Amino acid sequence: MHNITSTANSLIKELVALKKTAKRKKKDLIIVDGEREIGAAIETGWQIEGLFICEKILEKRGQNPRLFGVSENKMISVTEDIFLKISFKEKPDGFVATFKSKELVLTDLKLSKNPLIIILESVEKPGNIGAVVRTAAATGADLIIINSSQTDIYNPNVIRASEGEVFMQKIVKMSVEETVSWLKANKIKSFGAFTDGSKNYSQVDFSGPVAIILGSEANGLSVNWRRAVDERIKIPMVGKIDSLNVSVATAVIAFEVLRQRE
For 61-83, what is the mean pLDDT? Predict the structure, then answer.
């Protein structure tokens, strides 16, 4: 295990730079903060590049270093000052790692006999994406499709908000046009969430293969999706509120799918 004691170390500077999306894309790396999240990435076959450990923080937690089966030449011990500089968490647990980026290809995906697909269009807030990933896990969704090339699926805050589930779930990026064609080819019925939807979400049949599509809180779904969906649904609300946080809306509809299927 290597030891680094200076924040001026070039490797530490590179690690700090990975907090920015552009740097992560340029280096083709992602940064993962936390024992649970690192374990999830390793468990699902992600290639670890470096494991940074702060023994001082682990001592405070009364914990021995967990090595995750990582080879010694990829482990780096750092001081507490350095670790607080590279960590994203308010209360870090002493583990940060870098992994080689990778993207899922749809041709590698096998759907269940009765799939549930969750589709997000132009949703870019990391906390919302992470929360939707957790909902996908809780409702047994087959796939999450992201309709936005700008969205950073493996933003450290997405990883944190999903509690590492982002590595366990199948997530792909596709254009709206590609998504519509893929849904039709796989005979999956699409339900788009709109504030002016023609039916309440609880009044439609989700028992077969379905995709639920949601847009950003600011703009909702695009005209392209308005034209393409098989049905437009809504979540009825009282009072002056006319929309929900996208992660909440996704959970409401996804759990209705689960309820009907049970």
Answer: 88
d(CA 259, CA 253): 10
Contacts of 103 (CB under 8 A, 6+ apart): 172, 173
Calpha distance 260→4 (Å, rounded): 55
The three-class DSSP label of residue 7 is coil
Backbone torsion region of residue 197, taken as left when φ is above 0, otherwise alpha when ψ lies between -120 and 50, otherwise beta: beta
Token pair, residue 58, equals 């682990």
Looking at the fold, whether 121 and 247 belong to one and the same domain comes out as yes
Residue 44 has pLDDT above 80, yes or no: yes
**List of residues 6+ apart from 117 with CB closer than 8 A:** 141, 142, 143, 144, 145, 183, 188, 210, 211, 212
pLDDT of residue 68: 87
Same domain, 123 and 241: yes
CATH number of the domain residue 95 falls in: 3.30.1330.30
Strand partners, 77: 3, 53
What is the token pair recorded at 260? 């009907």
Let me know whether 14 and 93 are in one domain: yes
Reading the block at residue 128, the tokens are 């919302």
Q: What is the extent of the structural domain holding 157?
A: 106-261
